[in-house]
Design goal:
Radius of gyration: 18 Å
Structural class: alpha+beta
Number of domains: 1
Strand content: 25-35%
Helix content: 10-25%
Low-confidence stretches: none
CATH class: Alpha Beta
Number of strands: 13
Mean pLDDT: 90
Shape: globular
Largest sheet: 11 strands, mixed
Distance between the termini: 40 Å
CATH architecture: 2-Layer Sandwich
Order of helices and strands: EEHEEHEEEEEEHHEEHE
Length: 231
């Protein structure tokens, strides 16, 4: 696992923040059983450690923003915490490969999730980009946007509608994952934070719209199947 920042691509940087492409398998924060984390890499790479503003699961790859000082961290945290639905808003998009093909090619999942013993309203929008034909089980490539930011929200919501993310060892189809691991070498969660849009404010006068390409494991997996665009 990466032990320094030179192995983690920087997608954007200014005096207030950095946007990084976190690899799958790298925990964002340290804890029990965690040897190396993004937070520890940042601590060891800078005299003043950049501060985490939001989170990604260990096995989710892609875009994560860190602030360079406490004032910036507070400002970005406020931006990420906004609940408004106006055109000038933060957007977090993800790409996932899931089991099966959803009945609706474009939909919003509104299912409460239990967080620390309490039911929390949760909203996840998705759109089917492509479907992949397989002799046993078809798969879908989804673009996803979070309406709320609950723990493991995308993975839990897709599991609840019967289309778990491939490679998910917590909420996924374990038998299917085992088969795909043996037959196709699938070893990673196919969930990737692909785009981050932040509206203009004092620390980003022009705003920010950054995109992060899919990692090789996505392309290697989907390349094994015939595909078609979703209608």
């Amino acid at each position: 696992m990466e032990k320094n920042l030179k192995h983690i691509p920087i997608l954007f940087e200014n005096e207030f923040c950095m946007v990084l492409n976190k690899p799958c398998g790298l925990a964002v924060q340290g804890g029990k059983g965690v040897g190396v984390s993004l937070d520890s890499i940042l601590r060891d790479s800078f005299k003043i450690r950049p501060l985490l503003v939001h989170r990604l699961d260990k096995d989710t790859s892609g875009i994560i923003l860190v602030a360079k000082d406490r004032e910036s961290a507070s400002a970005f945290t406020n931006i990420f915490g906004r609940k408004d639905k106006t055109s000038s808003r933060l957007i977090k998009n993800y790409i996932a490969v899931c089991k099966g093909i959803p009945n609706n090619p474009k939909d919003i999942i509104r299912l409460d999730l239990e967080i620390q013993g309490q039911k929390k309203k949760s909203e996840t929008s998705y759109q089917v980009l492509e479907t992949f034909n397989s002799e046993d089980t078809p798969f879908s490539l989804l673009e996803i946007e979070l309406g709320t930011g609950r723990m493991h929200q995308i993975r839990r919501h897709l599991m609840l509608i019967g289309h778990p993310v491939l490679g998910d060892d917590k909420y996924g189809d374990f038998r299917l994952n085992k088969t795909l691991r043996k037959t196709m070498g699938l070893k990673k969660l196919l969930l990737h934070a692909s785009r981050l849009v932040i509206p203009a404010f004092k620390m980003l006068p022009q705003g920010l719209d950054v995109f992060c390409n899919l990692p090789d494991e996505f392309l290697n997996f989907t390349g094994n199947f015939s595909r078609k665009d979703a209608k």
